[in-house]
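4.2 Preliminary Data

To establish feasibility before requesting continued support, the project team ran the inverse folding procedure on a target of 346 residues. The structure was first converted into the token representation described in Section 3, and no sequence information of any kind was made available to the design step. The complete token record follows.
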């Protein structure tokens, strides 16, 4: 299989098929660099050599009533978690300033729990208005669980750019991971935020026991849903969770997964998210030949590596940081295609 040839076909309006996506995941180690070369052909076409930095701020932490098998915050887990109530508006704004100082282009406000109350949403909206006024150009993403139309529209009116709600895994495998909600609940949430005019962000957690078929199924489902951003999380098997002790991933497996998502969703922002440090190890830099975005610093319930190491990795690769004021004068070769116009193979 010529992976660069497949990338050229996609660039010129073609699409990867399901069989080709499965073939990529099952490809030989000797093909790994060829797979990444093809993925980078697509990444470069749609996003140039830029990397978008994202910073997470946890606005509320603690137990959640959902039974997600990977999550330390679930009431069904015995993991130790930090619990705190909704922070005030000032704390959200100050954290946004710290994110800008870290050269992040997107600031992500995250809350634990199944859904946010109207009081929570109103507080976030007030903080977002201040951030937009004080930090022009800062993109704001929120992750608040299941949400209705009225709250989505309020967030959009306040200036929120993006809403994250991961589908996490395939429709088939979802009942093995969570039973307190269904796959369709997550799909409906993504559709609700799209109707409100918010940019949809929806991704996956890999390494939970899913098959290659599951990974390809969810990659193609995301292509049909059309999120602008797809975070790829790699399982951190936290003690006390149902998935503790599960270690399926290898660095090269993670690279193939990132490449497959790039081939299936060529114009989406592919973001390296939780677990990249643990599961990619010394091969982290290679993942940026498929992905064009990453989280900087800590995640919701786990620590990331020092931001200085991430910035050095980006420099060593010869990439530049998107929305970095120091590169504002550079010509931008990024080509963007709206997701719902992207051809999808069957």
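Position-by-position output of the design step:
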């Amino acid at each position: 299989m010529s992976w660069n040839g497949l990338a050229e076909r996609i660039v010129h309006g073609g699409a990867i098929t399901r069989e080709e996506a499965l073939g990529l995941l099952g490809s030989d180690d000797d093909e790994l660099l060829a797979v990444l070369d093809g993925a980078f052909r697509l990444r470069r076409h749609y996003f140039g050599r830029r990397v978008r930095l994202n910073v997470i701020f946890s606005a509320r932490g603690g137990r959640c009533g959902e039974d997600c098998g990977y999550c330390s915050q679930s009431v069904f887990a015995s993991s130790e978690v930090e619990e705190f109530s909704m922070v005030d508006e000032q704390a959200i704004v100050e954290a946004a300033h710290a994110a800008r100082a870290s050269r992040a282009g997107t600031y992500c406000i995250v809350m634990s729990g199944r859904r946010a109350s109207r009081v929570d949403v109103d507080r976030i909206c007030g903080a977002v208005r201040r951030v937009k006024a004080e930090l022009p150009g800062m993109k704001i993403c929120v992750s608040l669980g299941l949400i209705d139309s009225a709250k989505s529209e309020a967030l959009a009116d306040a200036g929120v750019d993006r809403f994250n709600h991961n589908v996490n895994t395939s429709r088939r495998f979802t009942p093995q991971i969570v039973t307190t909600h269904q796959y369709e609940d997550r799909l409906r949430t993504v559709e609700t935020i799209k109707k409100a005019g918010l940019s949809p962000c929806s991704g996956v957690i890999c390494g939970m026991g899913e098959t290659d078929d599951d990974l390809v199924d969810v990659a193609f489902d995301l292509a049909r849903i059309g999120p602008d951003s797809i975070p790829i999380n790699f399982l951190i098997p936290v003690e006390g969770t149902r998935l503790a002790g599960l270690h399926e991933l290898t660095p090269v497996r993670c690279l193939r997964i990132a490449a497959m998502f790039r081939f299936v969703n060529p114009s989406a922002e592919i973001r390296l998210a939780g677990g990249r440090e643990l599961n990619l190890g010394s091969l982290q830099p290679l993942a940026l030949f498929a992905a064009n975005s990453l989280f900087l610093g800590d995640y919701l319930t786990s620590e990331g590596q020092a931001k200085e190491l991430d910035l050095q990795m980006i420099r060593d690769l010869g990439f530049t940081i998107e929305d970095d004021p120091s590169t504002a004068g550079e010509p931008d070769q990024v080509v963007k295609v709206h997701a719902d116009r992207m051809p999808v193979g069957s």
